[in-house]
Design goal:
mainly alpha, 7 helices
Length: 165
């Protein structure tokens, strides 16, 4: 069984699950979950943009470590909110979404963003930020910041296009 067939089966199972039933509870549930999704995205993107720009060389007078500690935690919380609410939203038309090319584009951007974050997190200079003067930047941080901005913007744009399917 190939990946597409597995995802189509998973999407069908998701649609048949009790998850979409949550939206039938009351008229306000879908708008509330959608609002939660937007809040999660705002937290994620709103914290990553200044961090990525700082890694790319802006605001050199502010130590990178001082920005990274709170902003990465806010981004993580926002990402968890966005993913959780996104699964609820996906459950409504999961089979339609999985078969749409935009789903695969969003998945690719999302995978790139996550891999970039993991590679950065386990990069030796990143682990030692607290112990050095982190007012400058290095090429690895510059490229990670650019990749992060590019990939998360791709996730946002593709996600917005789901509304037109």
């Amino acid at each position: 069984m190939d990946l597409l067939s597995q995802l189509q089966a998973l999407a069908a199972d998701l649609e048949r699950s009790q998850l979409p039933e949550v939206f039938k509870y009351a008229w306000w549930v879908y708008p509330a979950i959608n609002t939660g999704h937007i809040v999660g995205l705002a937290m994620l993107f709103g914290s990553l943009v200044p961090l990525d720009l700082r890694m790319m060389g802006m605001w050199r007078s502010i130590p990178l470590y001082d920005l990274a500690r709170p902003l990465t935690r806010i981004a993580l919380l926002g990402g968890l909110i966005a993913i959780t609410t996104g699964i609820f939203l996906l459950s409504v038309k999961a089979q339609v979404y999985v078969n749409a090319p935009i789903f695969w584009a969003k998945s690719g951007f999302f995978t790139l963003a996550l891999l970039n974050a993991l590679f950065l997190r386990f990069n030796k200079p990143w682990r030692y930020l607290a112990q050095v003067d982190s007012r400058g930047t290095i090429s690895r941080f510059k490229s990670a910041g650019f990749i992060s901005l590019f990939s998360w913007l791709g996730v946002l744009i593709c996600g917005r296009m789901f509304g037109y399917l």
